[in-house]
Specification:
The chain is of the alpha+beta class. It has one domain. It has four helices and 14 strands. Strands 3, 4, 5, 6, 8, 9, 10, 11 and 13 form a nine-stranded mixed β-sheet that branches. Strands 1, 2, 7, 12 and 14 form a five-stranded mixed β-sheet that branches. Strand 3 and strand 4 form a beta hairpin. The longest helix is centred in the first third of the chain and has 20 residues. It is globular and about 65 Å long.
């Protein structure tokens, strides 16, 4: 009887191991053919808490309390590196996306990606200067879409790469005040485009019948409370709000913080038949 239970236990362990490892195979990138898709889900948060627009308050390390009403940003120019060091760069014309918590647009799908085992990714936050200098008509469709998502100024200034808005207060203030953090390049004068490079916790296996879902956690707190820290209370203007927008001193430092916002939390392997 003891042997029976021992065999039964080994049977269930074998099933569990098979289920846990069934998402992976040992095929190398060089042996894989065809194309597939890969998805990226951007899970916005604030200092390890879910980001709930207009509903929750959050406190940063500087002692300021926030209520966030808008969190939107442009991600672009995706590339993937496989286990053998080969880099696939997604076509630039199709490589501009807006992530908007307000509109619940949180996913990017890259199509027709060469099948392979990918170990890392790189993407931009914003629109590179080279693309902007091609002129408005060369990117009219994306420019018009960005305008509907409050991600543009006039063309002479360009795109808002990050649009972060809400209310805040601190021990020095009696009530909540508006804040607006709009960061982009300033026409041709200042380039605030930044690139983010992230390693995967496990390989993202793209196959003709398998679409990995890469789950990124994005910390909005890092915008003002990263390596470069900004208190909003001293920035209050006569109208009672704090803003960082077309600011040649502060905007580049806020843009540097973008590179700290993103972490790949986990990867799902979604198999389709």
């Amino acid at each position: 009887m003891k042997n029976y239970f021992k065999l039964l236990s080994l049977f269930f362990v074998a099933i569990l191991f098979t289920n846990c490892s069934s998402d992976d195979d040992n095929t190398t990138s060089a042996e894989i053919e065809g194309e597939g898709n890969i998805e990226f889900f951007f899970d916005n948060s604030f200092n390890n808490d879910d980001l709930l627009l207009g509903a929750s308050t959050y406190v940063n390390s500087l002692g300021e309390t926030f209520k966030v009403n808008r969190m939107s940003y442009i991600v672009s120019n995706f590339s993937l590196t496989d286990e053998e060091g080969n880099v696939f760069t997604y076509p630039e014309e199709d490589s501009y996306f807006i992530i908007s918590e307000e509109d619940q647009e949180l996913k990017v799908v890259l199509e027709n990606v060469p099948a392979g085992n990918y170990t890392s990714m790189k993407f931009g936050v914003g629109v590179p200067m080279e693309r902007y200098l091609q002129g408005e008509t060369s990117q009219q469709e994306f420019w018009d879409f960005a305008a509907t998502r409050n991600m543009t100024w006039a063309w002479i200034v360009g795109y808002k790469f990050v649009n972060f808005e809400g209310e805040f207060t601190s021990d020095e203030l009696d009530d909540m005040h508006d804040f607006k953090i709009h960061i982009g390049s300033h026409g041709e004068a200042l380039d605030n485009y930044r690139e983010v490079e992230l390693s995967f916790p496990r390989t993202a296996q793209v196959r003709t019948d398998r679409t990995p879902d890469v789950h990124l956690v994005v910390d909005a707190n890092k915008i003002l409370d990263g390596t470069n820290q900004f208190e909003l209370t001293p920035l209050l203007n006569d109208g009672g709000s704090s803003q960082i927008m077309v600011d040649a001193e502060r905007a580049p430092l806020v843009a540097d913080n973008f590179m700290e916002m993103f972490v790949v939390d986990h990867i799902h392997s979604n198999t389709s038949h």
